[in-house]
Amino acid sequence: MGIATECLMPELPEVETTVAGLRSVLDGAMLARVEPRRADLRFPIPVDLRQRLTGATVTSLSRRAKYGLIGTDRGDTLIFHLGMSGRWRIDPAEIGAHDHLLIETGTGRLLSLNDPRRFGSLDLVRSDAWAGYAPFIRMGPEPLGPDFTPATLARALKGKATSIKAALLDQRVVAGLGNIYVCEALNMAGIAPTRAAGKITRPRLALLVESIRAVLSAAIVAGGSTLRDYARPDGELGYFSKQWRVYGREGATCPCGGVVERRVDGGRSTFFCPKCQK
């Protein structure tokens, strides 16, 4: 399986960028029309979603891991996941077959959740209980938050014989990381993706935490990476892929001067530099 045929999913930076785009339209907006256009995506859409959201005012927009959260003054929070191909569109010129949720504001702005593969999800929970939402219960800390430190990472990795790459993709260790940004952060930190997670020294974990934060922050500034189906809500494509150090660059030169290699584990490509990643 080559990179061109792999399922490249929106990761934390893409979701953060999406939430920022939605905030420009939805923050403080009254939801005049909420129209689910099918009964399900990956999972069933709540049957009372239209009733509970129509007429409500948006009071908050945030993110948890790869999920977006839209809070309202009725004490409900809409939780969305973009899956493999989902994206929000702002004021689309026309509505297509893959626009599965429409939201119109009181000022006439229109948003559509477009998801050709329907691997995304929509759910509605009480705002005072969203932290107990099933996918969130066992999640690790946010990588850009204050709880993600070398000490907390060391505790999460203690005794783990699995590879550091596999460990970082485990949402119980750290929330929101995906294949692209794990490859990038490991390269920046100079750590081989196959190294046993539980045997990495504290100084190297400190560098890894710093690298994860740096990679994610740079990707958010760039509007995310340009994946096959992903675009920001305004229709523009993120350009962080132009800054990739190793991901998708098999045979190219690593910043250290080595040659980027690719290996496949469990159907996923891992890109790394054997010269600088030990």
TrEMBL record:
Catalytic activity reported: 2'-deoxyribonucleotide-(2'-deoxyribose 5'-phosphate)-2'-deoxyribonucleotide-DNA = a 3'-end 2'-deoxyribonucleotide-(2,3-dehydro-2,3-deoxyribose 5'-phosphate)-DNA + a 5'-end 5'-phospho-2'-deoxyribonucleoside-DNA + H(+); Hydrolysis of DNA containing ring-opened 7-methylguanine residues, releasing 2,6-diamino-4-hydroxy-5-(N-methyl)formamidopyrimidine
Keyword Cytoplasm belongs to the record: no
Positions of the Formamidopyrimidine-DNA glycosylase catalytic domain: 10-120
Cofactor(s) demanded: Zn(2+)
InterPro entries listed in its UniProt record: DNA_glyclase_Znf_dom_DNA_BS, FPG_cat, FPG_Glyclase, FPG_N, H2TH_FPG, Ribosomal_uS13-like_H2TH, Znf_DNA_glyclase/AP_lyase, Znf_FPG/IleRS
This protein's UniProt keywords: DNA damage, DNA repair, DNA-binding, Glycosidase, Hydrolase, Lyase, Metal-binding, Multifunctional enzyme, Zinc, Zinc-finger
Domain FPG-type: 245-278
Pfam family, one: H2TH
GO molecular function (one): class I DNA-(apurinic or apyrimidinic site) endonuclease activity
Catalytic residue list: P10, E11, K66, R268
Function, in words: Involved in base excision repair of DNA damaged by oxidation or by mutagenic agents. Acts as DNA glycosylase that recognizes and removes damaged bases. Has a preference for oxidized purines, such as 7,8-dihydro-8-oxoguanine (8-oxoG). Has AP (apurinic/apyrimidinic) lyase activity and introduces nicks in the DNA strand. Cleaves the DNA backbone by beta-delta elimination to generate a single-strand break at the site of the removed base with both 3'- and 5'-phosphates.
NCBIfam families linked to this entry: fpg, PRK01103.1
PANTHER family attached to this UniProt entry: FORMAMIDOPYRIMIDINE-DNA GLYCOSYLASE (PTHR22993)
Protein name from the UniProt record: Formamidopyrimidine-DNA glycosylase
Organism: Sphingobium wenxiniae (strain DSM 21828 / CGMCC 1.7748 / JZ-1)
